[in-house]
Amino acid sequence: MKSAILSVGTELLFGQITNTNTVFLSQQLNLLGFDVMYHYTVGDNPDRLEEMIALAFKDCDLILTTGGLGPTQDDLTKEIACRALDDHMVLHQPSMDKLEQYFKKQNRTMTENNRKQAYMPSRAVVFDNDAGTAPGFALEKDGKQIICMPGPPREMTRMFQRRVLPYLETKSEGTIYYRMIRTFGIGESMLETKLLPLIDGQTDPTLATYAKEGECCLRIASKRETKEEAKEAVDAMLGQVQDIIGEYIYSCDNEELVDVVCAKLMKQGLSISSAESCTGGMFAAALTSVSGISRVFDRSLVTYSNEAKMFELGVKEETLAAHGAVSEETAREMAEGLRRVSGSDICISVTGIAGPDGGTEEKPVGLVYIGACFQGKTTCRKIQMRNVNRSWNRNFAVLSMLDVINRLIEG
Amino acid sequence: MKSAILSVGTELLFGQITNTNTVFLSQQLNLLGFDVMYHYTVGDNPDRLEEMIALAFKDCDLILTTGGLGPTQDDLTKEIACRALDDHMVLHQPSMDKLEQYFKKQNRTMTENNRKQAYMPSRAVVFDNDAGTAPGFALEKDGKQIICMPGPPREMTRMFQRRVLPYLETKSEGTIYYRMIRTFGIGESMLETKLLPLIDGQTDPTLATYAKEGECCLRIASKRETKEEAKEAVDAMLGQVQDIIGEYIYSCDNEELVDVVCAKLMKQGLSISSAESCTGGMFAAALTSVSGISRVFDRSLVTYSNEAKMFELGVKEETLAAHGAVSEETAREMAEGLRRVSGSDICISVTGIAGPDGGTEEKPVGLVYIGACFQGKTTCRKIQMRNVNRSWNRNFAVLSMLDVINRLIEG
Question: In whole angstroms, what is the distance from residue B14 CA to residue A208 CA?
Fold first, then answer.
């Protein structure tokens, strides 16, 4: 089935934000076996929107739209889509109830303009929005379908995964099964080089690499008549992949590294604390993004200044003087000091040079030491990462800390 | 002048890569005073490409294309653009010379298909490609213009900045001047409601609202004959906006709240430390994302457990027992304890319920207390935010902390 993706929003045409919705939806549609023929972006202009829908329907049977479902004057996607498929708007009571409840729960007055979010085309299949106020919907006529979703990526992806995907799966021919393999510690071109024997001349299953910030993903996908056949083919190839690059794999089911590590910590009942310098709280922020982590996470001491390292963690003044804040010696003393104050089973520390300033020939930007106390032993990993930029470097340091923990608690 | 951006490339339709070219070009065109009406992405399909060009020219006078200029069979942008503007291809000798030199320098044989990159529409203004092999060009007929550039972002942006931009500057009428106003503490629909008198029936300047996570932006833009006139019009409207919603504005020049606060701290030489619970390190992470912040940022104590609150900050056991970890009393004791250990000029604390679990009727998810010690006084702000999700709630708590500081150090 041929499809098109239509993004509605003037902020996209101004170049204020990057359109991540089309990337996500293109991948999803491809996985379902739909061909994506076009991406369009239009502003908040009803006439152009109507034009685009008509144009897309000339050779596509499915249009996915994002944006233009909100409460403001500019939000007109719903009305235009409705008209394009010869329908009329009616009050969708369940949506109105949800909307009223939502505002009541927050002790907020629902302004009049919000009400229109509860009106739907009369023939629409309505999709609840679990992450916002504007519901989405699917509308069909004479084999032409339009599915309208909210613009904010968080709302759109959740609605897509929970509601639209199951709906679309009933409309696709054949079944696709895929697994997203997550790796850390290997770059995309090296990954592709090592897996070339499997990638070259591939037909089904397909193997594709994707770079993420500081890490790499692998998608293994197969399209067969039944889900079982597709799964079998994918798992067989996964076995081959594991033989080649298994040491870098931390998840075969698209889990984030922080979730894998937190699940292990919680399962094994291991308490954890951290002592951070260059990461400035990002490591603790990552751990505490996981609901329920209070079961095991005790504290993070973000000792940004040398004074704080000495006061909070007992790092010795002589150590700082002799080796500097960014050194194996300091990383070890931070981890051991943390162990003394917190008593946590796992005490991890990090000290490094995030950049852009602060680097020298001896200690360049991207140099990081990660100390760890576990089961009575103190270890230290030294990393010299490539200096991409401050944000990327700090993120990579956090991933490295998670990797250190993941390998420590493996057994 | 109305313009459209057309991206050519099947890899975009597969969702393999994010289209950063359109973001860049949209910003550039807007700054030149051109209105961007559409973004299109098409695959390597000559018929659709021709269709899209014809469609765009219905109401646009300028089309920028990226992609499809390479040596392969699929690269047909040039030929299609040429046809659309009634021209024919000829050998462009300077381009052929450059191409031959390029291959010679690399000790590579130029394959036959590479030659076509040196053929150009006969009336074209040719743009050299300093970062790749495919030159770009501008072609015009009867007031309709098309500018074709390479797909790889690095090649495209370099060609644009060095060659296309000077070319376009001769073609733009009038100048756009705009300011991005950043606000915190007011929602998008309430903002629109309050500014309705200015938004309704607007012509020039224009006023548009954009939602960001936890905050709102306002774009005021004017297009006049000279930059001075446009600036005057924008600043006049900004004055009107400030009269209505000035209390929520933290920047009139598109700065992030964290950057505004950090700049103030560094300028005033005020040291700062934090004591975080529910934000779990996110506040410190935000501050330390700013290069040079070590001048003022001392430490953050992420006291996630009650034990840590008592040990690190001296929060009293009786206080926790009587009022709970999430209370004004605890927030105040965290801030005051932090002041004792760190001595920082500003000591800020936060304790709250990030969710999804942990809420009760009395203390629902989204309840947050922010304590602050400054100039000998301890203050506390209580917030009941709407419960969006854990991540959003934590981010909003961080923004609220920054807002507390921003208002404390205003004078």
Answer: 11
Of the CA atoms within 13 Å of residue B244, those in its CB half-sphere come to 16
Residue type, A109: T
Give B298's contacts in chain A (Cβ within 8 Å): 304-305, 307-308
Q: Determine the pLDDT at residue B140.
A: 96
Measured CA to CA, the distance from residue A263 to residue A291 in angstroms comes to 11
Q: Quote the pTM value.
A: 0.81
Predicted local distance difference test score (pLDDT) of residue A411 = 53
Output the CA torsion sign for B257, B262, B268, B272.
positive
- Residue B222 β-bridge partners: B177
3-state secondary structure of B249: strand
Per residue in A320-371, pLDDT tens?
999 999 999 999 999 999 999 999 999 999 999 999 999 999 999 999 999 9
Residue of B nearest to A308 (CA): B299
Q: Do B23 and A42 touch (CB under 8 A)?
A: no
Residue B370 has pLDDT above 90, yes or no: yes
Q: Does B24 contact A at CB distance below 8 Å?
A: yes
Give me the DSSP letters along A36-102.
Answer: EEEEEEE-S-HHHHHHHHHHHHHH-SEEEEES--SSSTT--HHHHHHHHTT--EEE-HHHHHHHHHH
**Chain B from 147 to 206: CB within 8 A of any A CB:** 188-190, 192-193, 199
Does B305 contact A at CB distance below 8 Å?
A: yes
- For residues B58 and B65, give the distance between their C-alpha atoms in angstroms, rounded to a whole number: 16
Closest CA to A254 of A336, A192, A182: A182
Cβ B298–A308 below 8 Å, yes or no? Answer: yes
User: A346, exposed or middle or buried, with CB in 10 Å at 0-12, 13-18, 19+?
Assistant: buried
pLDDT score, position B210:
78
Residue B411 pLDDT > 70: no
List A residues 36-75 in contact with B (Cβ-Cβ < 8 A).
Answer: 36-43, 48, 52, 55, 70-73
Contact residues, chain A, for B37 at CB < 8 Å: 13, 42-43, 48
Q: Which residue has 């469609």 as its token pair?
A: B55
Joined together, the tokens standing for residue A168 give 């679309």
Instruction: State the complex-level ipTM.
Output: 0.79
